[in-house]
Amino acid sequence: MKKLVVFSGAGVSAESGIQTFRDSDGLWEQHNIEDVATPEAFAKNPALVLDFYNQRRSRIGEVQPNEGHKSLALLDSAFETTVITQNIDDLHERAGSKNILHLHGEITKARCSKNSNDIQSIGYKNIEIGQLSKSGHQLRPHIVWFGEAVPAYEDALPIISNCDILIVVGTSLNVYPAAGLIHYATKAEQKIIVDPNMNSNEIPDGFELKKGSAASVLPNLVQQLLKAN
Ligand code: NAD
Questions:
Q1: What is the pLDDT of residue 99?
Q2: Is the pLDDT of residue 57 over 70?
Q3: Looking at the predicted structure, is the pLDDT value of residue 224 above 70?
Q4: Which residues pair with 84 in a beta bridge?
Q5: What b-and-e string marks burial along 89-103, b requiring 16 or more CB atoms within 10 Å of the CB?
Q6: N or C terminus: which one in the chain shows less Cβ crowding within 10 Å?
Q7: Pocket of ligand 1 contains residue 218 by CB under 6 Å
Q8: 89 CB near ligand 1 (under 6 Å)
Q9: pTM of the predicted protein model
Q10: Residue nearest to atom 13 of ligand 1 (CA)
Q11: C-beta of 113 in contact with ligand 1 (< 6 A)
């Protein structure tokens, strides 16, 4: 079975109604990264940070996977597929993809603010001030904040290095180290980028651009890959 990697970012969830990160109407036009997405912010104003993620979590609980997520899940039947996502939402899971690596954490989980291995599932419920982990400290979102290490990077490296086909979808390739992973796909015979806003002169060497939104491009692309396999 050929090995296929999907490397996804916020754009794959845009048509589900989740704001992206850096588009002009994106999340970070309305919030300062320094105020809500760093360990320093959590130390300074934990209530503000928890509230920011509580709102994101509740919104994610209300939306549904789109045709992009759903078509990607069909790849599991024909390829050894891994979805390596920068997204903290659970829409790939809910669309049916089985093998998913979250580089930047998962919003449906909370973890101890002192012991990063003490992780629990919380679904779409809020995390409140005073809500403690099993080891007795304040819970925080199970999210990789700016300035924190990306532990799943090491797991992602061999997977992407050995893939035969790479689909990159919905990422501006601006957030490092995650964005650097695509350069390790040196064995891939086919590398495709799906994005409605990129132009061919902006994409990395060796990639083919399928210009369009995830929900409009991925269903056809996936059918083509399934037929060609
Ligand atoms: P980004 O906002 O920097 O880039 C989004 C990309 O998606 C852009 O290139 C844009 O042109 C493209 N895009 C917009 N609409 C699209 C559509 N309908 N279909 C396909 N592509 C579309 O996002 P990023 O590169 O993922 O940024 C990285 C960070 O954003 C990650 O750390 C991630 O954790 C965080 N983030 C995640 C979510 C989520 O979990 N849904 C939401 C916002 C931000």
A1: 98
A2: yes
A3: yes
A4: 7, 101
A5: bbbbbbbebeebbbb
A6: N
A7: no
A8: yes
A9: 0.95
A10: 11
A11: no
d(CA 103, CA 185): 17
Decide: 32 in ligand 1 pocket, CB within 6 A: no
Q: Given this model, what pLDDT does residue 26 score?
A: 59
Residue 69 annotated as catalytic: no
pLDDT (average), residues 159-174: 97
Q: How many CB atoms lie within 10 A of CB 149?
A: 10
Read off the pLDDT of each residue in 124-153 and give the average, rounded to a whole number. 97
Helix 214-228 to helix 67-74 angle, to the nearest 10 degrees?
10
Q: Ligand 1 in contact with 217 (CB < 6 A)? A: no
Q: In whole angstroms, give the CA distance from residue 53 to residue 107.
A: 8
Nearest ligand 1 atom, CA 88:
40
Residue 68's nearest CA partner among 229, 226, 172, 217 is: 217
Question: Which pair of tokens denotes residue 177?
Answer: 């180290």
Distances (CA, A) of 68 to 30, 82, 88, 163: 26, 15, 17, 21
How far is ligand 1, taken at its centre, from the CA of residue 11, in Å? 4
CA 142 to chain centre: 13
Q: Which amino acid is at 145?
A: W
Distance CA 136, CA 115 (A): 10
Angle at the Cα of 194 from the Cα atoms of 189 and 198, rounded to 5 degrees = 115
Establish whether the linkage from the previous residue to 204 is cis, with ω within 30° of 0: no
